[in-house]
Design a protein that fits this description.
The chain has 140 residues and is mostly helical. The protein is built from 6 helices and no strands. It has one domain. It is a multi-pass membrane protein.
Amino acid sequence: MSNTNNLIILGARILLSFMFILAGFGKLADAAGTAGMIAGAGLPAATALAYLAGAFELLTGLAVLVGFQTKIVGWLLAGFCVFTAVLFHLPYASGTELVNILNQIMVMKNITLAGAYILLATYGPGVYSLDARRGAYVAA
C-alpha cells in the first residue's frame, strides 16, 4: 500500500474516532441525558449503562485514533452503531416532527458509520498505527 493511502487511512481513523471520543467524554461527564434515553427504551440500570456506554465510546474512540486492536474495535463499533440505531432511533415515528426527523437522520448516520467501521475492521488501520508497530497489522 502506498504512503499516500496509509496517510488517508490515518486521516479516516482520526475522523472516525472524533465522534466517539467526544460522545464518550460527554456521557462520563454528565450521564443524566443518556440515562434518560436508556430508561425510555425500557432498559434497567440506566445510569450504570450510561456510564458503561460512555466508557465504551471513549475507549473505543481512542483505540481507533491510535490504531489499537483495530479489527476487534471496528466490529464492536459497527455492532454498537446498528444496536443503538435500532433500539434508540429506529422507532422515529413516536415523537414530534422534529424529533422524528432527527431520529431518522441518526439511523442513517449510524448505519453509515457501521459500514465505515466494517471497512476499518476488514482492511486494518494502516501502517501509522499501534497495531502496525506491534506487528499485528501487516501492510499489503
